[in-house]
Amino acid sequence: MEERKRYKRILLKLSGESLMGEQGYGIDAQRVADYAEQIKEVVESGTQVAIVIGGGNIFRGLAGAAKGVDRVKGDQMGMLATVINSLALSSSLETHGQAAQVFTAINMFPIGEHYSKWKAIEAMNAGKVAILAGGTGNPFFTTDTGSALRGIEVEADVMLKGTRVDGIYTADPEKDPTATKFSEITYDEIYNRGLKVMDLTATTLCKLNNLPIIVFDMDTKGNLKKVLDGEPIGTLVYESK
Question: Given Cys at both, which of 14, 21, 52, 60 links 147, Cβ 3.0 to 4.6 Å?
Fold first, then answer.
């Protein structure tokens, strides 16, 4: 049994689809505002926050490739979608009185500052939320892999994967009513069971660098702070001793 800890610095991964809210496409302003309120709350409690957001509410590179879009160009379009989402969250955070700074994996000044580990950590030390956009800056990598990479780079204590599901299950709970939830699971168990938590590259990066992951329901207001307060919400993924 792994002990839930209090974390000083987190990498929060949000899916692009989650920003759609109930409207089924694009960006739901209320959903973004709800996220901004939760994030501000944990920053005010003393936690440093870096964020990576997907772009699936706008464009997915793989989906584009399936329809004939060149894979590299499709992934680049997906990277740009993450920048749009990052700007939306940054704006909402600032509206709620929480300073934020957008960093982009490729140079996109003045839209965002070109990402470096040191500048992102400097922003967090100054009380800002560091929003890390543009994935890894390279095609063929998902935003899950970008999240793992950035979490390791900025020396986060944990990656929090905010989803619409309250943890990791033996099967997709939206399709299989008999699916049961794990309170915790090792990286090796994820591999062996073939669970689709993140892509294998991202999971392997976390395993090799001993970055724990907590998968939880971000859409329930207050859950982010509960996770950081050590409450047993979601599923903890860890490296077995």
Answer: 52
